[in-house]
Amino acid sequence: TSLTFIRAGSALKPKPRLIILGCLVARTPELIAAIPGVDEYWPSELKNRILAGQTPVPARSRALLKVQDGCDHTCAYCIVRKLRGAPISIPPEQVLDQFEQLLNSGYQEIVLTGLNLGLYQSTGTNLARLIKKLLKKPGNFRLRLASIEPDLFTDELLALLPDPKICAHFHIPLQSGDDLLLKQMGRNYTTSDYARLLEKILTLRPDACLGADIITGFPGEDEPSFNRTCQFLNSIPFTYLHVFPYSPRPDTPAFKSGDPIPKPVKKQRVKILRHFSENRRRQYARKFAGTRRYAILEPDGQALTDNYLRLTCPNVPRFCRAGALVPLLINLAGEKLIGTIEEEKICAIKT
């Protein structure tokens, strides 16, 4: 948990300066203040003011570029909207400058993120128009989009998907496959809307990896409701799921409904959905055995393709640095995906 990480950080020797950010600060500042070793904790307003204009310093082979924060959606289970406040967006000129700094630092994959990324809007520039500006930048790079809500995945955004610089990986929260439950959750779409969106995406990018979030055990999810979710999931071409058991949050509309689904039932449903997700992920991965694809090399001997396949890469040549975008031949070894670097195809890569 977050508290475990905070306590672990405060116990380091020598102890670093420890500044805590995020929803936990907004929700329970007294809890953070009571942890020995915490030097400062910043609420959202202070964080936004101090970090405005700062280019993030990535710690991995891919760079995260946060361009948006806040949310105005009214999902019945979510407290984040109250903690983070109204949507705010980084001005496009500032985003472009930070993007260029990351490219100049050698990053060849940049992940565009936000609390609710599809709400990006600044000085007449929406998310699709921002992406258009970023794609015009010269260089050998790719752009990965973080999670985008289905009701915010516009036709203007869809029109950009064929660009090969956009990773063929789209994470689109679903939450339930039961229309009645979606309505009770305060979600702004139906299962039919969601299915049509996936069809449009796959028409434009047939090789795309499609991820979704699912909450199980929400009040009102009886056995027939859960079965409808399973039937809907079976009917759509998703690749993987992030599955969460419902946990009531004070000050949310759903909190007054309590937590009527027994924990053992939620646990079993989570198990069923995660097993379903694992099978879909394996089926998707097998389709790419024997194909070649560009991937970002990571420091631990792995690599990540544009369509979110994680590969094990034995015998990486010394001249291939972590963070390099390289062509790999993909093969299966049991259930493991192996990426083989063909040196003759990357002889132009510099260290």
TrEMBL record:
EC nos: 2.8.4.-
One Pfam family matching this protein: Radical_SAM
Domain Radical SAM core: 57-283
SMART domains named among the record's database cross-references: Elp3
Cofactor needs: [4Fe-4S] cluster
Annotated keywords: 4Fe-4S, Iron, Iron-sulfur, Metal-binding, S-adenosyl-L-methionine, Transferase
Record keyword ATP-binding present: no
GO molecular function: 4 iron, 4 sulfur cluster binding; metal ion binding; tRNA (N(6)-L-threonylcarbamoyladenosine(37)-C(2))-methylthiotransferase activity
Iron is among the record's keywords: yes
Matching InterPro entries: Elp3/MiaA/NifB-like_rSAM, Methylthiotransferase, Methylthiotransferase_CS, rSAM, rSAM_horseshoe, rSAM_sf
Protein name, as recorded: MiaB/RimO family radical SAM methylthiotransferase
Organism annotation: candidate division WOR-3 bacterium
